[in-house]
Amino acid sequence: MIDVECSGPVQVMWDPKLIGYDFGRDHPLAPIRVDLTMRLAREFGVLDAPNVRVEAAAPADERTLLLLHQAEFLAAVRRAGEDPSQVDLYRGLGTGDVPTFAGMYDASALVVGQSVAAAEVVWSGEVAHAVNIAGGLHHAMAHTASGFCVFNDVALGIARLLELGATRVAYVDVDVHHGDGTQALFWDDPRVLTISLHESGRYLFPGTGFPEEIGGAGAEGRAVNVALPPATDDARWLRAFDAVVPPLLRAFAPEVLVTQHGCDSHVNDPLAHLALTVDGQRTSYRRLHELAHEVAGGRWLATGGGGYDLIGVVPRAWTHLLAEACGVPIDPDTATAPGWQAHVKSLGASPPPRMTDGSAAAFVPWDGGDPDDPLDSTVLATRAAVFPRHGLTA
Fold first, then answer.
1. Where is the Histone deacetylase domain (predicted)?
2. Which among 139, 178, 261, 266 is annotated as catalytic?
């Protein structure tokens, strides 16, 4: 077993100005979720570990944004940020998902700046791991905003790694929604392996992410999609992960592992229909940490993502993510920190009492699968679509 508690220096990207990525009152992607996460992680002492440094990066400049986004789109976002009445529905700006707001360009560029800086320090070897919980805006496309995402920070972090010389980057997305933007931006690039485990697009936005989506010409097998049935719980989600992610990462042998950790797969999330617990999510963080050491020399860039139970789930899940990355994991049976509980109560809300939901997060490892089982059948379809292209047996 790899000793992930001794994995080297870690950089946590944080600037209080990141809460300025704010679509306004009543929008599901409320910035309080990242504020509450950082408060909880600080009270647990996660960010005070001797190997951890907290840094703020400058907003991404136009040259960086143009690595993946079109100039006309950047101009439209800039106009919307200067005058929110300047909606551009063709480019996804001013919709219910992506309302325009003052400062939109600068706030979005700041999120990107954190993920790009995280990529740079991981690639240089300055740190082993870097985390941007405010990032993971994986739906944004080259020319459009989508699904609460203006610029695709996590894809731009990958693009920066490629620009710096990386030739194999693996991206694993565990958000409940398909990582469609990141997949699309690297569809034809054999240097990037994108793996997304999500609720099936038959039931959930963005309606994509099926096993037959395997990548463009010359990059076949580089896009991997596990479309999970509704009500998938810890045991079954972890079984699907076990069947797909480790063998593909071992075969691809990435130089860097990039991960997106949307926690909207939780059973209490109001926008989706999977049934994971914080314990199952925490187990996935641990497994991806281990895999980063096993397949990528420990080089790991992690981001946040979706998550809309703003108090009950997101702060606990991402505090576990930060603690895992920083090498100071928190016992799930631990009570949530008292100062944090008091702060949540001051907001008129009820804090969750403990860092666990009481799940063992146990699962039966993949054993070949049962084609008559809905979960196993979707895993078998994914393996059949891509495994042979990596020299693996489906």
1. 27-323
2. 139
